[in-house]
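Appendix B. One record, verbatim.
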Amino acid sequence: MENFNCNLFESDKGDAFWNSNQYSHFYEPYFSSIRDTATDICEIGVHKGSSLKAYEAYFSNAKIIGLDIDDKSQYNSERIKTIICDQSQNESLDKFVEYCQSKSILFDFILDDGSHDVSHQQLSFGKLFQLIKPGGFYIIEDLCASHFVLGQELYGYITSEDKKKNNTHTFLVNRPFKSPWISETNLKYLEDNVDYISTFDRWNRNWNAPFKCDNNYPARSITSVVKKTYKK
């Protein structure tokens, strides 16, 4: 049986390119366990549709939703549906939650490969974790942004003192969960329903990343898998 192959679709989650993150190797054990049973998958950040195509090829029975701030309907197919959603906005995320609830959709996993801004990552996690099936996963990619120096810009978003103090990497490893971007109700839900969190941290020595991190440390490929408990 073939592995989760992102290289075929030129996704940086694979390992074929100079700036590849090699996340697919970390995801493989999680994805292979649900390859035939997964019914619903969501990714935040469509870009050129590479990941959506990789999911479509690997998960033969799953419907895939791609969320993006821009119209990405050119990547729609029989099993892929793209929806405009701004992960930085409460109203936009709430609208997506309402849509999924109206369709009785729960996801085998949601993967955040969106803006990488720590405030957006946490806001989305707090809002969308309720849409994960019991025993499912929520994946937050590109945690390297948690270690950016003050003033570092990415996709138009600037690292501030508040974002450094409350970065997502630290948020995931500390208990109880604390975040200025997640409501007390949603923090309580996370506390009650997160089973465990695994992280992958790799320095891509072939890529001189144009991002400055604390202590002149090289920018790294860091992702995380958050497992939801099986309780309903």
